[in-house]
Write a structure and sequence with these properties.
By secondary structure, the protein is an alpha+beta fold. The chain is built from 7 helices and 11 strands. It has 2 domains: about 5-155, MutM-like, N-terminal (N-terminal domain of MutM-like DNA repair proteins), CATH 3.20.190; about 175-295, Orthogonal Bundle (Helicase, Ruva Protein, domain 3), CATH 1.10.8.50. Helices cover about 20% and strands about 20% of the residues.
Length: about 300
């Protein structure tokens, strides 16, 4: 079975508070397997980034989520029907949860709509048994949803060959030394490769490299093992701190409750071009690598 993190695992970035307590009709302490079941599914267009699977709505309706987890940047809901509901948020996708006792037209957090009004980018609506509603909103439609047999989840194409999670026991300096062996790509590009490390994004790679004192331009295969040990530790720390802070809200990221993330207030290099380095006070620099902005300190990172 593909190794991914369950919503019941202690270190998972998924918050069971969001996906469990807000969906239950009476007892928030019920388990995920007994409380989250789909009643009806409404798709308001034929596709997102990709077309929906054939008979998508009917294959989900009536099924219960027996386990909720994550693999890299993919949300995975194991269904009682024997399939996995695989979801990716893309750039702007988000889920909002309306509890069973919400007033008509009222959304969680800051959203208040006229009764019957449908937000422009609400593309998929899941009506849950018990009265709650889960809505997927995605302005740019880079997200997608798919269904795949649970018994064959290892062979879901994006998962096949994917690297370890950065907060898993498999991820270490020794693992990076082996994965980077002979690589002539810059270390930043290597860390963003999902087949090296699953789920790392641009922000957290920039932050981890700064904390490790490693230049994003340095060739991955040329980094000493002792520096890779430090890098592995700092990657884990950055991810864990970001989870604790609720993620990073740069433009439109929100929790299912409408709350914003706060880790952006702790950035040491990301999005701080020309601002003083928190260590040496020299200006933070920005460059573009593989089409992505890289922020770094040329003095502290070698």
């Amino acid at each position: 079975m593909t190794s991914y993190l369950s919503a019941t695992d202690a270190n998972t970035p998924l918050t069971r508070r969001d996906f469990s307590s807000r969906l239950t009709s009476s007892n928030p302490k019920e388990t995920l397997s007994s409380s989250i079941a789909f009643q009806t599914v409404h798709t308001r267009r034929k596709d997102l980034r990709f077309p929906f699977p054939e008979n998508f709505n009917h294959r989900i309706e009536g099924a219960r989520i027996t386990r909720l987890g994550r693999r890299a940047k993919y949300l995975v809901g194991e269904l009682s029907s024997g399939e996995a509901l695989i979801m990716h948020l893309g750039m702007t996708g988000r889920f909002t949860v309306e509890g069973p006792k919400a007033k008509a037209g009222e959304r969680p957090g800051k959203f208040h709509l006229a009764a019957g009004e449908i937000p422009k980018h609400d593309h998929v609506v899941f009506d849950m048994q018990g009265g709650a509603t889960v809505t997927f909103n995605d302005a740019r439609r880079f997200g997608f949803m798919d269904l795949w047999p649970l018994a064959d989840l290892d062979h879901y194409p994006p998962f096949d060959g994917m690297g370890p999670e950065p907060i898993s026991n498999q991820f270490s300096g020794a693992y990076l030394a082996e994965a980077f062996k002979g690589k002539k790509a810059p270390v930043k590009a290597a860390l963003l490769d999902q087949y090296v490390v699953a789920g790392l994004g641009n922000i957290y790679v920039c932050e981890a490299l700064f904390r490790s004192g490693i230049s994003p331009k340095k060739l991955a295969g040329a980094i000493r093992k002792d520096k890779l040990e430090i890098l592995a530790v700092e990657v884990r720390k950055v991810i864990e701190e970001a989870i604790e802070a609720g993620g990073s809200t740069i433009s439109d990221f929100e929790h299912t409750t409408g709350e914003l993330g706060y880790f952006q207030h702790r950035f040491q290099v990301y999005d701080r071009e020309d601002e003083p380095c928190v260590v040496c006070t020299r200006p933070i620099k920005r460059m573009v690598q593989s089409g992505r902005s890289t922020f770094y300190c040329s003095h502290c990172q070698r």
